Amino acid sequence: MTSGNPGVQPDPREPAGAPGVERGSKMLGSRAVLVSSASTMLFFAVIAVVVVLAPGSEVVAERFFSPFHLWQSTVGTPSTPSVVGAFLLNVKIFAVSEVLILTLALVIAVVRQIPGPVFFPFRMVALAYTDLFRGVPLILVLYMIGFGVPGLGLEFISYLPDVTYGIIALVLVYSAYVAEVYRAGIESVHESQNAAARSLGLTRWQSLRFVILPQAVRRVIPPLLNDFIGLQKDTALVSVLGSIEAVRAAQIYGASQFNYASYVVAALLFVLITIPLARFTDRLISRDKRRREAGAVA
Amino acid sequence: MKRALLIGFLVASLMLAGCTGQQGSGGSQEGGSGSGNSCDIKSPPLFKEGVLTVATDKPAYPPWFEGNPEHYSGYEGEVASEVAERMDLPIEWVVEPFNKSYAPGAKDYDFDINQITITPEREQAVDFSEGYFDNAQGVLVLKDSPFADAQSISNLKDARMGAQVGTTGLEFINETVQPNEEPKVFETTNDAKSALESGQIDAMVTDLVTTVYLRDFEIDNSVVVGQYPRNEQFGMLFEQGNPLVGCVNQVLGKMKEDGTLQELEKKYLQQYLSVPTLEK
How confident is the model at residue A26 (pLDDT cuts 50, 70, 90)? Predict the structure, then answer.
């Protein structure tokens, strides 16, 4: 269906389909390259000189960037786990949680939108859920699920692995955030879209499923990815329940060897996995922008 | 613009790599605790003039520390106070979290006393005094656990074990017990305790004194199945190269000779040390 979205009309001041910024950069050419590399060099040179000349720079370098400790914490020792190996647990937790969060949050967001007095209690529950879990610190939820539920001694839910409890806690908290992101997306779709869909004979559910949600979800992909970069780092908190993920492995190494290089290794791993996601978000944003500027079919 | 950014970034990262490489090779460290007695006990080099500034973590646990920070007693509290007294100095307590105790840079105290085990790896980063206590690991389980009557290390192979991060208890699990399941690691002793009580782990390992303390005062239906000595000693932690180590070692040596250390150990720790030793 063609839906030139009335909310995002192309800016009349910009000539349609003319991405002026890109053409400009080509004309600036090699001079821009020179200036930018010179200023970058100067910028980092100043920082480097200050750091190197600092009286404690040797000790700091040894304690944080010692090649020996960087390597040894990466591969692990007989008494300390490998930081890279432990990072696989972060990736697993992240992957499983992400799928569950996307699903649960969408359900919550949709429930909050159901009209009609009959569904009032459902809307209430969804509202209370987002209010509660956005307010409670993640660490507290982790403790309550991870130590509280096993303490109950119930047949089916009290004897799960601690990582499972960690994932449940992450999903509970992050779904509340992500539901609000979805909701913002749903509310940004103009009411006329719904009206048009209904006048074509679509049911309320069909209109939501085929007209509103596709537009809403596409609009909120950048903020969603933002939340997921946060989630990646918060997977480290699951370690309070006992499992060894990258940051905990780094801590174990640090305490055993009295050296912080292991934390640097863990940090690099988190950055490494965050950068592709960030670039992916950038691409989505610029694609969306191109489409809108071109006044394309949404 | 993209190309410019890329080149700039490359140049910058090359420069940074160069710097760190240089520094890395410069970080030569001397190991060895109690290096020399080149400390004049009449005028010891102190962090703060005329007072011995001693650090420990907060909260500090009995029986290592009892009372309040103005006047700590308990085993470690009294050992430190006795050292100060024999150096004719008043003592002042400050707080130092364990994770910060090996941070680079000057320390804002004379020494840290916090059940820190002396190991060769750690001596690359800090200096230790002579040992003031022979530590053993203790294994704590619940009474109704299948491991409650374990008598040897091999009985514990199938247990789900847990320890606090940064403790030699964790090294004992990894190196000596080598359980079939990867051990759980907790931020604090309290978290390990919660995991034991809620059945997330079968056995908790920490220093012997703490396990007995937990058994007697914190976890009702628990039992310490055994202790395992690993030739570990607790030492006081000094900034690397601090000559005060020499003075403190002289004093500690005398406290060992005249039986003061044994007396303090008897006073505070005896009730915690009578636990059968685990066989291999």
Answer: low
pLDDT at A156: 84
Closest CA to B240 of B126, B100, B96, B121: B126
Q: What fold is seen in the domain B135-231?
A: D-Maltodextrin-Binding Protein; domain 2 (3.40.190)
pTM score, two decimals? 0.77
Q: Where are the beta strands (DSSP E) in B215-269?
A: 222-234, 237-238
The angle formed by the CA atoms of residues A248, B223 and B278, to the nearest 5 degrees, is 80
* Least confident segment among A9-13, B207-211, B272-276: A9-13
- CB B104 to CB A60 under 8 A? yes
Q: Which of A256, A257, A260, A282 to mutate to test the interface with B (most CBs of B within 10 A)?
A: A256
In this prediction, residue B193 carries a pLDDT of 93
What CATH fold (topology level) applies to the domain B52-132+235-273?
D-Maltodextrin-Binding Protein; domain 2 (3.40.190)
Span B187-212, mean pLDDT? 92
Of A40, A44, A258, the CB nearest to B126: A258
Residues B182, A163: Cα–Cα separation, whole Å? 13
CB contact under 8 A, B124 and A257: yes
The Cβ of residue A9 has, within 10 Å, a number of other Cβ atoms equal to 10
The answer to whether A238 and A142 are in contact (CB under 8 A) is: yes
